[in-house]
Every structure is written in structure tokens, then in C-alpha cells.
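>> received
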Amino acid sequence: MTSSRPRVAIAAACFVALMLGRRAPALAASALPPASAPPGASAVQVLPPAQVPPGRSPAVPSPVPPTAQTSTALAPAPESGTAPTMPAAIIPPEPPPAPRVVVTGDLTPPIESDHDAVVGTWGVEVRSVASTLPVFARRSSTGCPLTPAAAGAAPPAPTPGSTSSLTSDCPPIAVSMLSVRHWVTRNLALNAGVALALGGGSQGDRLLDTYFGFGPGVGLSILLGNWRHLAIAASPDLSLVWFKAAGSADATYVVDLRAELEGELHFGFIGVPALSLGLRSGMSLRMEKSTELTQWAAGVSGATTLRALVSDLTLRYYF
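>> returned
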């Protein structure tokens, strides 16, 4: 019995050496890449299942390849309760101080004014060009009607068919202009108009001269101030009127250049902001020329008296 134990040990050692000798070529071949693999391919290959000695359970392979386990680095999970760190916010530079602004009545109106309601519309108006200039006079002999002599005067003794008891009543003609105003923007308006005067007639068997006057007018309006119902504008304009008292009479001219301030009152307080009244006052330069008269004058124009306050009002309506 004692001599058989060394024999068994020697046989087991020979069996282990034989098994190791068989596996050595396979391990050497698996370490080299296959001949058909492209350059740079991985040299790691899956080994064939090892023979398990009887009585032992085979090891369960890992579902993740060894290369994936060793080459993938996972980022550490943030600790619970710790907020992720954010990059520092970039603080913009402080803006420069705002420029100083002089506050006016129309800088920040609380509600829309009547003037803002007529921006972009067309306003029609009638205004006087000149009041009773001598160049607009008709010929007293044939252009004006005759009236009875003033009371208390001693008229000459009438003769049959004579009109010596009548005197000529020939006041100058007041010329007016029909014009339009268009507010292109809130602060700028264009003005254009035409002056027209035409008249004539007869008295019994006596024909009166037919007079005619015509001329253009252009101008601007620049808004200076604006309140709820009132707008103030600077209104320079230029007008030229050609007048002829009769077909055989010489022509006369009037050139009128004005630089005025105009106050325009809208009737928005009664629900009609399109209707307004305008009143002008300023400086004027006027030249009158006729056959026997040429004169010019510069001075104040517009509402300089209580009478002019009513006669120089301009009625305007916007469409």
C-alpha cells in the first residue's frame, strides 16, 4: 500500500504537464492577430472555453467584454444634495448716463391729442390773402355801381336821363385763398392753395367791368407744441396774386411773404377733432405794383386788433 502512493503522485504530475503542453501553442496563437485582420486591429480575441476538471462548475463569463470594462471611464456621480456648479455670470458694463432733456408739454402725452388724430389727413381751409388793397380796386367810372348822393349834400340839378345825382361806390376787393394742408408727419405739414377773385354785372343799361384775380400760394407748417386740443406751429408761406380790373385795364400784382406763428384749436372737446380754428400773427413783407402805384411794406401781420381777431380766423376741416 505504501509503494502505490508515489506512483499515483507521479502519474498526476505527468497528466498536468501533458495538459499544460497542449494549451501552450493555443495561447501563443491567440496572442497574435489573424493574418487577414487589417493593420491596427485589436489583438485581443475570445479564448475557447477551458476544460473544467470533473467536479467543478464552469465560471460564468461577464456580459461586458474586458476591453469595455477597462477602457470606459465613467464620470463620478454628483453627491446627493449638491447643486451642479455653473459658470460665473458675466456682468455687463453700466450704461452711460442719459442726456438731459427739457420737458415740454407734448413729450409724454397721457392720451392721444386732437393733432395726432389728423396726422396723414388733408385739411381744407379758406383764408384771406390781403384785405382791401388799393391795387385790387375797380375803375370807378365803369367798374363800380352808382349810389345816391350822401344825405345833406347838394347834388347838382338832374337832367333827363342824367345820373349826376349818383356817386360811385367802389370799395377795394378782398381776395381770399382756398388751400389745403397735409400733415406728412406729426411735426411737418405742406400747404398749397389758389387765390381766386371774379366778379362783374350791370346796373340798368350800364355794364360794369368784369374783374378777375388769380394766384398760387405755398407754405410749410412746423409743429412747435402740442396739447390736448391746441397745436402751435410756425407757418412761413409765399403767395402771388395777379389782378385785372377789366379787359382793357392794366394788370396789377401783389407778392406777400409771411413768417407767422399759428395757433390751431381743435374741437375735440365736443367730439369733432377734424374741425379747427386757426389764428395767425407774425411778420410780413408785401409788395404792391400797378400802373400808377408801386409800394412795399414790412411789418406785423395777423391779429393785431380786435377786429382782425375775428376777420383773420381760418376755418379748417380735415378729411
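>> The domain at 114-145+167-318 is CATH 2.40.160 (Porin).
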